Amino acid sequence: MTASPQLTSDRITPAPGLQANAAPPDSEQLKAMDAYWRACCYLAAGMIYLRENPLLREPLNLEHIKQRLLGHWGASPGLAFVYVHMNRIIKAHQQSAIFLAGPGHGAPGVLAPVYLEGTYSEIYPNKSEDAEGLRSFFKQFSFPGGIGSHCTPETPGSIHEGGELGYSISHAFGAALDNPDLLVTVVVGDGEAETGPLATSWHSSKFLNPIRDGAVLPVLHLNGYKINNPTLLSRIPHEELASLMRGYGWEPHFVEGDDPMTMHQTMATTLDACYAKIRSIQQQARDGGPLLNQAKRAIWPMIVLRSPKGWTGPKEVDGHKVEGFWRAHQVPLAGVRENPEHLAQLEAWLRSYKPEELFDAEGRLMPELKALAPTSTLRMSANPHANGGLLRRSLRMPDFNSYALDVPKPGVQRAGNTYPLGVFLRDIMAENMTNFRVFGPDENSSNKLQAIYAVSKKLWLEDYLPEDEDGGELSPDGRVMEMLSEHTLEGWLEGYLLTGRHGFFSTYEAFVHVIDSMFNQHAKWLSITQDIPWRAPISSLNLLITSTVWRQDHNGFTHQDPGFLDVVVNKDPDVIRIYLPPDVNTLLSTANHCLKSRDYVNVIVSDKQQHLQYLDMDAAVRHCTKGLGIWDWASNDEDEEPDLVMVGCGDIPTKEALAATALLRESFPELKIRFINVVDLLRLLPEREHPHGLSDRDFDGLFTKDRHVIFNFHGYPWLIHRLTYARTNHHNFHVRGYKEKGNINTPMELAINNEIDRYTLAIDAINRLPELQVKGAHVRERLRDQQIECRNHAYKFGIDLPEIDNWTWPF
Amino acid sequence: MTASPQLTSDRITPAPGLQANAAPPDSEQLKAMDAYWRACCYLAAGMIYLRENPLLREPLNLEHIKQRLLGHWGASPGLAFVYVHMNRIIKAHQQSAIFLAGPGHGAPGVLAPVYLEGTYSEIYPNKSEDAEGLRSFFKQFSFPGGIGSHCTPETPGSIHEGGELGYSISHAFGAALDNPDLLVTVVVGDGEAETGPLATSWHSSKFLNPIRDGAVLPVLHLNGYKINNPTLLSRIPHEELASLMRGYGWEPHFVEGDDPMTMHQTMATTLDACYAKIRSIQQQARDGGPLLNQAKRAIWPMIVLRSPKGWTGPKEVDGHKVEGFWRAHQVPLAGVRENPEHLAQLEAWLRSYKPEELFDAEGRLMPELKALAPTSTLRMSANPHANGGLLRRSLRMPDFNSYALDVPKPGVQRAGNTYPLGVFLRDIMAENMTNFRVFGPDENSSNKLQAIYAVSKKLWLEDYLPEDEDGGELSPDGRVMEMLSEHTLEGWLEGYLLTGRHGFFSTYEAFVHVIDSMFNQHAKWLSITQDIPWRAPISSLNLLITSTVWRQDHNGFTHQDPGFLDVVVNKDPDVIRIYLPPDVNTLLSTANHCLKSRDYVNVIVSDKQQHLQYLDMDAAVRHCTKGLGIWDWASNDEDEEPDLVMVGCGDIPTKEALAATALLRESFPELKIRFINVVDLLRLLPEREHPHGLSDRDFDGLFTKDRHVIFNFHGYPWLIHRLTYARTNHHNFHVRGYKEKGNINTPMELAINNEIDRYTLAIDAINRLPELQVKGAHVRERLRDQQIECRNHAYKFGIDLPEIDNWTWPF
Q1: Is the pTM of this model over 0.80?
Q2: B11 falls in which pLDDT band (50, 70, 90)?
Q3: Is the sign of the CA dihedral B606, B607, B609, B611 positive or negative?
Q4: Which CA distances in Å does A189 have to A105, A147, B246?
Q5: Short-list B783, B795, B796, B724, CA closest to B755
Q6: Residue B335 carries which DSSP code?
């Protein structure tokens, strides 16, 4: 069955119309909500302080207090406040919703309502809904063997840890894409709001199609302070902040104050208004019929919630203002264990929430409060979208073999490596028009993946100009996401994957460093989830790194940086994979494998320019399955022990290593050279260090125990040493790679400067092999002359010698 | 002489008052400016295409065309337009100004006016102001051995390459800080404006003190397109964009159109208005007397320049719209070499600028045009602020010895390592109140550097609340820069250093990855400047990485990432330095050295918590001078060949390695252990690979040729292998470090999980030394028991055993 581009329309829910205008809560309801919120605040404080006496049924004493007080109180009450109010909306409208806490360090404010609505106990039965369960729930917080103080993967309902700040909104939008029925509530801390990634991610609403996508409701939480400082947005004039939000394309609604009951009233009214607005936008967009390609960007509502940091906590401690000040950031009464007054103040604070009114004799939340929360999968903590693997359907994949390039003879013809991948992606897109997207910062065409636009164009919801018709490839229903922000794209993609869908991201090699830190955090998330049985596996994050270091003729030195791989290899081996396919068919085979995989970050390095082709599809599949191997057609060691091993890893280094091999074989036909190509970089690691690692026996079989190995690598050469230092023959590994020797160069000149060129490699071999010392002298001279000629030609004409550009494998 | 905090007031120039309202240009002047601009556009196009016939004195033919057409035309005309108009302002007001091109890939539009005002020829005499010089100037562009197509360091007047997008505004603000007389014009591309770092950097104006700092005039250049896409900000409604800019705190002025003469008129009027506004803000702030601490944030003017991409270039090529569309991004007539029609079109285009009216017989710009540019150092390309090393004064440094901690016995007392550094920085600040600043994302107090606030507080120009008095440490004249954006801080610091000043940046270890990419770009800039004799050396970028991986009790796994060092070591060895001082005195000595150095990025890793102290100041200085060495007091090999070498690198790993040494010596008094500490990480590299690298002889002398070396490292362990793989004894190096085994842990539990703890190290030694195999068996058992006890205690009480926390060196 092939899906048509119109398929999505089947899944559009009509907006619920009148239902959006549910009655506002009366004062009884608000009082109950306040009680629910007090229960949340009580739990949030309790988990920071208490290891015993969880319901304060006894007078508080030191025995009840944790030995080490860890956690973040400041953002917690505000987070719980939003959560409780969202519960009312969910119940009133049977609305599917999830909750992202930008201030992940306010996890107590999220964990509390998650526990109170029962999900926590369902997943972790020993954290049951009773006094003993509560005690255990408190104790595990920020405690060895327990859970951290952010919304870590162990948190039901979380798809956003918030340990590193800046990505809450982009994660939220990633979750909302292609989920028309979903409402994603995202609380943005005013600290986080100062980061660059967050600042630009407000523009995400320009990429939300109100027909086929869900809604995102951001709540900018101005609690006023970071660790030690006021926040910028909390101290600018009201009108300036409103102008900023309107300028970003949002309709701001303000909820400001500190009196709980007044704030409940305002929040409820505001949330009703925002919800009605969201539904009205959707209704208006969807009621005209599902004309996806006529959708327009909407001005969505957002909320500015200004409430005190550490709201309802101690107002003052030791004469210092705490509530509503930065001193409420972590543990507001830090001296509880040493200072009896602090202990008394803590008890008074905890009792101010009146736990005896909130929990029954067993320690369960009072039934009338429990009734305020939604049930089953309407609970934000139990919504399957936040455990996206549950909803994940495998990609419908065409057979990648049918995109094969015919390669009758290795090393002769040229092709752009990424273009056929674009064709493959196009057809994958065609079969998965509701759960697959392609991401790239203004570069999918530049990266030669433009074939995809035949099936789905670039999403564009702003105004159109007539000239856009001429190759603009824009459409309101496009599924290719392009914005010049690697941060935002990566955030969208992560949010999309974490909610159970599939994606593919291509980006310039040098600038993938922009998201080093996001990669780190996602890899850490995946690593932790390996040990969380209830988290269903999600699709891998597939990252194509292209426009690589060796082809930067337009751009020069700033665009030369293959070091992302060095960042990647530091992460948990169970979740990282690195591939450097050298040609079209190996790239197709690799991409096919990656797109089917789960719970990894797959990094594929492939340049976008024209390159020599080596393997037909059968050979490519065999080669990629092994991950590395001898290319017999380029070797003449014929199952004997070779005199020299030549290795290529990466498209351009492979070509130069082959050319070096040819130069050597032409001059020294008796020399036995084994040629190895490496696609799966982590095969080089020992098997104990990575699931793909080769056994020492296999490694030695390939790379020999004692022959010189000239290893021509795509990236920084030291990385190969780092992967192979424990191997038998490591001391004979001579690695060439990029060494920051660049400026504005022709490709060959750049190769020569960094010593990955054919001449340097061949000369290196001659120098290292004793049997060539004498008879090789004149060859070496000739190769040096050729190298100089290459340089001179580049300097004179600005291009490489045609015979360099057009070189083919001669045998 | 000690400077007082008030010193800055001496340097404040009174605002020039009436001078700000110079007469608007008449139509003759505008015509001349247009001619000047046409000359710029002609040059910009010429450098992309021409290798001969630079003045079109002959009919254009293929011989005149470069073999490879490289470069970016699209942004060039707009950049030159702004440059030419700024020249008028500079001349009219004798205003010191510099120019930053956010779209660095529009370098032709900058190089052109730089050449026309004569600076280029002064610096590069063979690019003289005549036909032959012009030919050479054209040819070198995007040509091997020449210059790249961004505003690379070779560009006179550039402090911002623009190869990676996002940092133009933060660089501009860094340049303006403490330069009250300087006006920094910064063109922001609408592509760049989509990046996160740029999006938040608009807030920089909230950190500009109009009394002591200069002004920044951003020109948001809406040329409408990126490589293949429209830009977001060019397609949102006018009012929305105005609202965004007002929300960011700016006063937007719009210059929109495509008719050159109308645009000249509008731009001139607008620039006059903006300049008058800037001067009026400064006058108002400064005239009340230099009350730095009463300054307020101003609403500064900015310009939105909407002009066609590739303005004045080919309107249409092969039936496709080019001018005003993304097809103008790089080379608009790419088929010139193959297609005679393209060649004809190119000739018509170039002749449309009427070069014969612009250049005299010699090929020099006509004198009446030349007169439009300012002269000498008022030329933006020759302003010394853009070659900041020329203006750099050495820091006045107190003697760091006077901050020494008294350490009578190694390994016994405890102190916070970073606090005394804060005291040292405080006194440096006091003596350098106009050219030194300290940067940190809301973390200088968290990082225990708060002593500095006694001399200079955190800069804050927004509203104040009464509670800020209680430890807020805020002031309008503060010199400590805190904003929750590592990007913005790094950008400010780079701009500050590049204009000849000094700075110090402290940040959390895990989140320094946020600026990996900025580090890469700055290191590349420094690397290139090593070979540019006219660029005077600038101060090093000093980066203190603290709140490290091993002490994340509050924050857990997301905050554990020591991998920045792996990024750093990939860059040019001539510009990178890495230090891991283990205690207070080594940190002081290291910081003293770094603050005096030039043209490096110095990375210092030091945790902020309480740690054991090892060296008195004399020993610390000796140790840091060597960079690594044997700690005799912890060793018992007494100049003999040891049985085992134990190495610590980093504060916590050093403590654990010492404790392991003590455990071994207690159990096996006859075992000869050599204890080495490494401060200067790159000493481990061979001398041929880094200026600090040890000779093999020295290395072998320290680490032996054949003894087991247990190396306890702060970061990812593979990094040590990468640095030492070529050493004689490398196969005996057993490196321990962080391996991503973290969650919420006590410090000891985290150490055990990652095998850097004393027990693992000692057991490892026992296992490796044949002589301990038998007698060591029971010791090994005991150590394992102790390790288990540590874990159990952590799991039970949430804290480490007191004897672990309070361990001291026993001998």
Answers
A1: yes
A2: very low
A3: negative
A4: 10, 22, 22
A5: B783
A6: T
Distance CA B734, CA A333 (A): 44
Element (H, E) at A132: helix A131-140
Minimum-distance CB partner of B227 among A197, A230, A446:
A446
Tokens read off for A357? 């009114």
At position B289, the amino acid (one-letter code) is G
In the block, which residue shows the tokens 């760049």? B192
Beta-bridge mates of residue A438: A480, A504
**Cβ-contact B635, B439 below 8 angstroms:** no
B743/A530 Cα distance (integer angstroms): 13
- Please count the other Cβ atoms lying within 10 Å of the Cβ belonging to residue A688: 10
What does the block give as tokens for A355? 């736990």
Answer whether residue B89 shows pLDDT above 70: yes
| Predicted pLDDT at B341 | 96
Most B CBs within 10 Å: which of A223, A235, A317, as the mutation test of the B interface? A235
Name the 3-class secondary structure at A141.
strand
In angstroms, what CA-CA distances link A17 with A96, A283, A674, B229?
A: 16, 7, 71, 37
* Token representation of residue A283: 């209704």
pLDDT in tens, B510-540: 999 999 999 999 999 999 999 999 999 999 9
Distance from CA of B196 to the nearest CA of A (A): 4
Parallel, antiparallel, or unpaired for β B320-321 and B316-317? antiparallel
Amino acid at B377: T
| φ and ψ of B780, to 5 deg | -60, -45
DSSP B635-679: ---TTSPPSEEEEEESHHHHHHHHHHHHHHHHH-TT--EEEEEES
Q: Is B786 helix (H, G, I), strand (E, B) or coil?
A: helix
A149 with B460: Cβ contact below 8 A: no
- What would the two tokens of residue A95 be? 């609305």
The ipTM of this complex is: 0.96
Nearest to A551 by CA among A603, A599, A610: A610
CA distance A732 to chain B (A): 10
User: For residue range B706-739, what is the model confidence (pLDDT) as tens digits?
Assistant: 999 999 999 999 999 999 999 999 999 999 999 9
Q: Do A746 and B144 touch (CB under 8 A)?
A: yes
Q: In the beta sheet, which residues pair with residue B612?
A: B414
User: What burial letters (b/e) apply to A31-42, b meaning 16+ CB within 10 Å?
Assistant: ebbbbbbbbbbb
Contacts of A566 by beta carbon, 8 Å cutoff, 6+ apart: A715, A716, A719, B566, B567, B570
B570: nearest CB among A487, A556, A566? A566
Nearest CA in chain A to B689: A739
Q: List all residues 6 or more positions away from B613 whose beta carbon is below 8 Å from its beta carbon.
A: B405, B407, B410, B411, B412, B413, B414, B415, B583, B584, B585
CB A104 within 8 A of CB A41: no
> Nearest chain A Cα to B206, which residue?
A232
- Three-state secondary structure string covering B175-240: HHCCCCCEEEEEEEECCHHHCHHHHHHHHHHHHCCCCCCCEEEEEEEECCECCCCECHHHHCCHHH
Chain B contacts of A66, Cβ < 8 Å?
Answer: 798
CA distance A145 to B796: 10
Q: What three-state secondary structure class fits A214?
A: coil
Domains of chain A with bracketed CATH: 36-387 (3.40.50.970), 400-611 (3.40.50.970), 632-805 (3.40.50.920)
End-to-end CA distance of chain A: 46
Are B795 and A230 in contact (CB < 8 Å)? no
CB of B562 closer than 8 Å to CB of B714: yes
Backbone angles phi, psi at B433, to 5 degrees: -75, 5
